[in-house]
Amino acid sequence: MIEIVSKKMSEYYNGQRKRINHFMKVFAYSQMIGKLENLDERTQYILEITALMHDIGIKKSEEKYGSSAGHYQEIEGPQIAKEMLEELNIDQDIIERVCYIIGHHHTYDHIQGMDYQILVEADFLVNLDEGHCDQEAINHAKKNIFKTKAGIQFLEYMY
Description:
This protein has helices at 2-12, 17-36, 41-53, 58-65, 70-87, 92-102, 114-130, 135-144, 149-158. With 159 residues, the chain is mostly helical. It has a single domain (2-158), classed as Hypothetical protein af1432. α2 crosses α7, α3 (41-53) packs across α6 (92-102) and α4 (58-65) crosses α5.
């Protein structure tokens, strides 16, 4: 099913290489961190789907608000993800969790659950690189965002 979600997201962002590359990189980091942190199978599955879909709200946010700002993504993303996952006959409890994380993935206080934590860390790893952030931003993220051993190690390997 992960492969089908990946294909659907690539179709959704057809022609937008930057968006597709971004979610694929977040997926790769999420998958590896989740496995290194020994997530159970269900949580890993939720994490991987969420990693592929986390920025699904960007397209509608840009159309509706003229912005891809995180809070707009959190508003618009869950409904789009829900519809896509329902078409794929994903279990409702998994859809609810994926949509919850998508609807909060730019909210960093009160992170609840390893799936949510790892998604945020993976997104940060990719965003820090894509944004060419300075050492101060990297240190701030390490201190305030990263909690998993594997996520911290990837950050340290990179910087």
